Amino acid sequence: MTPYLSVIVSAYNEEDNLHRGSLELVADYLKHQKFTWELILVNDGSTDTTLAQLNQFAKSHPHSRVINNPHMGKAAGIISGALAAKGELILFTDMDQATPISEFDKFLPLLESGSDIVIGSRSGRPNAPLFRKILAFGNIILRNLILRLPVKDSQCGFKAFNRNAAQKIFTIMNQVHPPKVVSGPAVNPGFDVELLYLGRKLGFKISEVRVSWRHQESRRVSFIKDAIAGLTGLLTVRYRSLTHAYK
Questions:
Q1: What's the rounded Cα separation, in Å, for the pair 8 and 6?
Q2: What is the distance, to the nearest Å, from the Cα of residue 210 to the centroid of all Cα atoms in its chain?
Q3: What integer pLDDT is reported at residue 224 of this predicted model?
Q4: Which stretch of DSSP H or E encloses residue 54?
Q5: Assigned domain for 247 exists
Q6: Per residue in 45-90, pLDDT tens?
Q7: Distance from C-alpha of 69 to C-alpha of 50, rounded to nearest angstrom
Q8: Which residues are within 8 A (CB) of 155 and not within 5 positions of it... i.e. 6 or more apart?
Q9: Residue 173 CB neighbours (<10 A)
Q10: Domain count, the chain
Q11: Residue 126: is it exposed, middle or buried by C-beta count within 10 angstroms (0-12/13-18/19+)?
Q12: How confident is the model at residue 229 (pLDDT cuts 50, 70, 90)?
């Protein structure tokens, strides 16, 4: 049976979150829904026990499966999961569940009433450090100046697409970002912006919903590096658009 919802979770060295039961929270939510679903777990070349834990989880949870990728970064993991998804709706969410999977309840009415893409918005980012809030505010200003993309929060890792939008957007993303093995932490702050820019460029209806969110500490965040990477990502998206790379 074709699932109604595909949920994608990309994982790179996530053994701590797995030990805390983050995937159990996702599975418990899905098991109580009336619609059919699948849970796609993408291992991004983890070097700890993540893959073993994902495989064990999938064995004990029906409708769950694991995609084992070499280390290519979170963006590549989401792309590969989206292209493998069979659902009519496709949602990606973070392993740490900073935005709880239950927030999808707010998305479903919009997706069923005509929105092609629905994204979470973390208004104010409560409890986040000041440097994260500064990065977010700067990103909003630059995003509007460079891409004219009118969303409040492009970076929330909680986004849903109908199948038509997902197939078109992620097929182009896979062409623009061909799979490439990398070393070390790989964060692509331009990924979410590019997804939304493509969605708008292709004429899809985008809705934004305020979601519950709690700050999670990450060792993969650097103010200077992320600020530079964010600006570079915006300029790269603009350049690709001007050079007709999005076909």
A1: 7
A2: 16
A3: 74
A4: helix 50-60
A5: no
A6: 999 999 999 999 999 999 999 999 999 999 999 999 999 999 999 9
A7: 12
A8: 136, 139, 189, 192, 193
A9: 20
A10: 1
A11: exposed
A12: confident
**What one-letter code names the amino acid at 239?**
Y
Please give the C-alpha separations between residue 244 and each of 2, 37, 71, 172, in angstroms, as whole numbers.
35, 36, 29, 12
* DSSP secondary structure letters along 125-166: -TT--HHHHHHHHHHHHHHHHHH----S-S--S-EEEEHHHH
Q: Residue 148's CB: how many other CB atoms inside 10 A?
A: 10
Q: Give the CATH number, domain containing residue 145.
A: 3.90.550.10
Domain that holds residue 197: 5-242
206-236 b/e with 16+ CB inside 10 Å = b? bbbbebebeeeeeeeeeeeebbeebbebbee
Whether 226 maps to a domain, the answer reads: yes
Burial 69-82 (b: 16+ CB within 10 A, else e): bebbbbbbbbbbbb
What is the mean predicted confidence (pLDDT) over 94-117? 97
Which sign does the torsion angle of CA 228, 149, 10, 100 carry? Answer: positive
First to last CA, the chain: 32
Whether the CB-CB separation of 240 and 177 falls below 8 Å is answered with no
Residue 131: pLDDT above 70?
no
DSSP lists the bridge partners of residue 64 as: 39
Distance CA 103, CA 114 (A): 19
Name the band, by pLDDT with cuts 50, 70 and 90, for residue 136: low
